[in-house]
Amino acid sequence: MILVNGVETGMLDALDRGLAYGDGIFRTLLLRDGRAVAWARQYAKIVADCGRLDLPVPALAALEADLACIAADTRDCVVKIIVTRGSGVRGYAVAADLIESRTIAISSPMPIYPRDHVEHGIVARVCDLRLARQPALAGIKHLNRLENVLARREWNDTQIAEGILLDAANKVIGGTMSNLFMVRGNTLLTPDLSACGICGVTRERILAAGSRLDLKTEIGEFELKDLYSADAVMLCNSVIGVWQIRTLANRHWQPHSYVRMIRTLLEQDFD
Amino acid sequence: MILVNGVETGMLDALDRGLAYGDGIFRTLLLRDGRAVAWARQYAKIVADCGRLDLPVPALAALEADLACIAADTRDCVVKIIVTRGSGVRGYAVAADLIESRTIAISSPMPIYPRDHVEHGIVARVCDLRLARQPALAGIKHLNRLENVLARREWNDTQIAEGILLDAANKVIGGTMSNLFMVRGNTLLTPDLSACGICGVTRERILAAGSRLDLKTEIGEFELKDLYSADAVMLCNSVIGVWQIRTLANRHWQPHSYVRMIRTLLEQDFD
Lengths: 271, 271
Fold this sequence. Notes:
Two copies of one chain form a homodimer. Chain A has two domains: about 1-110, D-amino Acid Aminotransferase, Chain A, domain 1, CATH 3.30.470.10; about 115-265, Alpha-Beta Barrel (D-amino Acid Aminotransferase, Chain A, domain 2), CATH 3.20.10. The first copy, chain A, is built from eight helices and 16 strands. Chain A has helices spanning about 15-20, 40-55, 60-75, 115-120, 145-150, 200-210, 225-230, 255-265, and strands spanning about 1-5, 5-10, 10-15, 25-30, 35, 75-85, 100-110, 120-130, 160-165, 170-175, 180-185, 185-190, 215-220, 230-235, 240-250, 250. In chain A, strands 8, 9, 10, 11, 12, 13, 14, 15 and 16 form a nine-stranded mixed beta sheet that branches. A six-stranded antiparallel beta sheet of chain A has the order 2-1-7-6-4-5. In chain A, strand 14 and strand 15 form a beta hairpin.
């Protein structure tokens, strides 16, 4: 099901600035038994990201109506919400009278990942592409995602579930579609995303879960050597949940109890 | 008029990867008396940019059919050609069986700029935003243009016709919608675009025009001080042609004969 400004349709105005310039943001979330997981955090991120790009914020009621409409169709699915600056005339400048953004809500089936990803962890690789450092866009889940597309095109091997991205300064940022955490002793560490990367809702939830589990949390700058020396490395997003890395280059890890605990907490709809 | 894969329609599949990720490229060109200006160079850039992103290249005949269709409607207009990786399922990975891209051709009226822009030059400003350095995307006219959108939002003063963009290393790159040239003695200088910026067709044409006019041409790294000390600074793209900068901060320039000569050559359809 696809809703554009609340109306069911598969089509979008070809002059939408989301297409022209990637002028918009998006979120991906789960509907579980008709309820949007971590919805308060998801909406807060929509508000924050719209604020960063000076996009009119879609009304909570309008988005909740979209979710209800989708839930009436399918109780369990993935929902992607896109917010764009609507249609525009040619040129980067925005009409001064723009007061509403456009929302596109798209449901798709719950993906089926191998059980093994959760039970034993995944095989990951380090991508060649280096993310550009752009503080003006860092953290935002905006529609300019060519770096992710190019990074994802670096491998075809279906045994490799995710690629790790470093930035131009060789700092670890995350996966092509996920945020990254390391476990070191009783500390959860995750990269600082003030120069690039996306601040995901599951990353926020894991930071909160860490406190709940009496783990220390640390946001900082990390390099590949920190990854290799960690007790565990996990990748997360709203759809996959948490996957621990089993193999990265020549390094192998066993399932770690903290990863299991965090996963359990997230699945219990801890928010 | 809007043509999607050659069919007149204003609507686009909401699952297009151009919207989802900015996964595509575009060109903007003039139709003058029904003929696409510098079309051979424009198509060559489409081929080159598609190659950089590993996008299937649209057939020359298909794009020329679009141009003919638009020309039958309006002899003089601006045409924007967008090429996207078509529709996709959720996720950055591209279906292995993708063999065709999607093309969107959009005509819009010829914009009317003040005569003054050509006769006496424009007022420009230096943008605060710094372009991120990303060699993997540099030069390509791709659909990830949030930096340009944000830079263009820095000013509302209608007296200011364009903003100058520097990169994270404070090198001059160009305008928000234009390439930049300096005149120093009998040399035309333009920024190297291997780390960021867009290599426009008019930039190529001016480099060719420079040789024709027995001017030396130099592609290099320049800072703001080089701009201020230049004999003339001009901005160019396929729609505006060539605008000399009259005022930038406290620096003022008189119209320069080389700028006039280059403009004349471009208007004579020199290619």
